[in-house]
Design goal:
The protein has 21 helices and 7 strands. The protein is mainly α. α10 runs antiparallel to α11 and α14 crosses α18. The termini are far apart.
Length: 503
């Protein structure tokens, strides 16, 4: 057990809301320790968050405080420092390792705060650092890390071999959507019912806006994501029992009439600390071993949590505070107003308008619209990666600093020059056409590079390769694509067209 004495208060941040953050058997505070939660208004002043995100965070915090009852002191303050002073003065408090560099620096600088190890992840910081330091190259790859996690946590293993004989089932999990349908026809994901606490949150947000205290982007709508442990478990159970079975094959596909496909929608619950990643991957493995779901679906889900989520979390800390400033491609263009304001009418590209509209309405899209539509467009247009990172952080209900810095700087915008990925994640319109039903009704044609019908993604892809040819032609995974520039008879016209578009 931790905590010097049972009367040492323990501080819970707004993304540390699950029972595993207060379990003494799992590194939490003493079972009798009083708890502290601070609702800081300044958090919402610093950034124009999506309205749905602000609602979810405040609802989750206030629901948790209601569950904890007299054990918790819930303070509404202008800043964390003010709230801490009001609640405990100079009394020592404990807190689990926060999830951002800024928060960690803040609590570490306070002499009255004792920082406990991080919770909510499978791999401890020291274990990852040992693994990373043992690599013989400066590049860290998710596939290597994922295999190590599978072995050390005995996930989807048969002895010392991966279940089914292969570590990577991406080939089975990158199928285009079924033809002639607008949705997958799978049971809908879990949706929570709002409570009186949600009414209170909505009233407070409305008042803050009226008073000119804060501003938001995006729509105010009924809360679409779990705010309590009970709701999160219900969402997990529904996914495991009704949606995991169809998750794998089409996890990279997009359908205009099916925003969620077979995705779990559990990321916000994991990132609020309402779910522990271990219980998620263990349930997925159990469903496969019982014969209820195919291996490719179980492996695809385990890869997202035990692979990518863990990898991103640890890279955020391993690469350090300067990583967010990475800009290897020297992209500095500002985000256009329509993108910043989540206005889908700002573009005639159907796939892009569709993705922006979904973000505006819900604060969420699955990973392919994020990476291969929104992120790819930003990369092709040369937008400032720090501004793109901030946009994703603010606009998504599951977006936190640790989530978005590696995902956007490293994976989406290739701003780190390849420290975490082997190539830029971008494509022409042909990929979007193959993996979605969004191109047929679009005014642009994915096969056209130049002219009034030229797809912005197709033209943008070639323009990006041309701008960075010297860098990309030395990348083994990009050499063939770069050489394709030499076969484009209309390259000069394409480059002029893209210059005109950016003016």
């Amino acid at each position: 057990m931790t905590g010097k004495a049972s009367d040492t208060p323990h501080w819970l941040f707004g993304d540390q809301l699950g029972s595993h953050f207060v379990d003494p058997a799992r590194g939490g505070p003493h079972r009798d320790s009083p708890l502290l939660m601070i609702e800081s208004r300044s958090v919402f002043r610093r950034r124009r968050f999506h309205r749905a995100k602000a609602h979810l965070i405040l609802s989750a915090m206030r629901h948790r405080a209601a569950e904890l009852g007299d054990r918790v002191r819930y303070v509404k303050a202008d800043t964390y420092r003010q709230g801490l002073r009001e609640a405990v003065g100079d009394t020592e408090v404990t807190v689990h390792h926060p999830t951002s560099h800024a928060a960690h620096a803040f609590v570490s600088a306070l002499p009255s705060v004792r920082v406990l190890p991080a919770r909510g992840f499978l791999v401890p910081h020291d274990a990852f650092r040992t693994w990373a330091d043992e690599r013989t190259t400066e590049h860290l790859r998710q596939e290597d890390f994922y295999r190590w996690v599978r072995r050390t946590h005995d996930l989807l293993m048969e002895g010392d071999r991966p279940a089914g004989g292969r570590w990577n089932l991406d080939h089975d999990n990158r199928q285009p959507p079924p033809r002639g349908v607008t949705d997958l026809g799978v049971p809908a994901p879990y949706r929570p019912r709002e409570s009186d606490i949600d009414d209170e949150v909505r009233s407070d947000l409305d008042r803050w806006v009226r008073d000119g205290d804060v501003e938001f982007v995006g729509d105010d709508a009924p809360r679409g994501f779990p705010a309590t442990r009970r709701e999160a478990l219900a969402a997990l159970r529904r996914f495991m029992e009704h949606r995991l079975v169809t998750f794998g094959a089409h996890e990279d596909a997009v359908l205009s009439g099916d925003a969620t496909m077979s995705h779990s929608l559990l990321s916000s619950s994991l990132n609020l600390g309402l779910l522990d990643p271990a219980e998620c991957v263990e349930r997925a493995e159990a469903r496969w071993r019982s014969g209820d779901v195919p291996l490719n679906s179980a492996e695809g889900f385990v890869r997202q949590i035990a692979g990518w989520r863990e990898f991103v979390w640890h890279l955020y800390w391993y690469f350090g505070t300067g990583y967010r400033e990475s800009n290897a491609l020297r992209h500095h263009e500002p985000l256009p107003d329509w993108f910043r304001e989540l206005s889908p009418d700002g573009t005639e590209a159907n796939c892009l308008s569709h993705a922006v509209e979904q973000v505006r309405a819900t604060g969420w899209t699955h990973h392919i619209p994020r990476l291969m539509i929104l992120g790819s467009f930003a990369l092709q247009r040369g937008w400032d990666p720090r501004a793109v990172t901030d946009w994703f952080h603010r606009s998504f209900v599951d977006g936190y600093d640790w989530v978005m810095v590696p995902n956007v700087v490293g994976m989406s915008q290739y701003a780190d020059g390849g420290r975490m990925t082997t190539k830029p994640y971008t494509s022409g319109g042909a990929y979007i056409d193959r993996m979605s039903d969004l191109c047929r009704p679009c005014r642009y044609k994915p096969s056209v590079r130049v002219g009034e019908d030229a797809c912005p993604f197709t033209a943008g892809y070639w323009n990006l390769l041309h701008r960075h040819r010297d860098r990309f032609e030395h990348n083994a995974r990009m050499t063939r694509a770069v050489r394709g520039l030499d076969r484009l008879r209309d390259l000069d016209a394409l480059l002029q067209q893209e210059r005109d578009r950016s003016d």
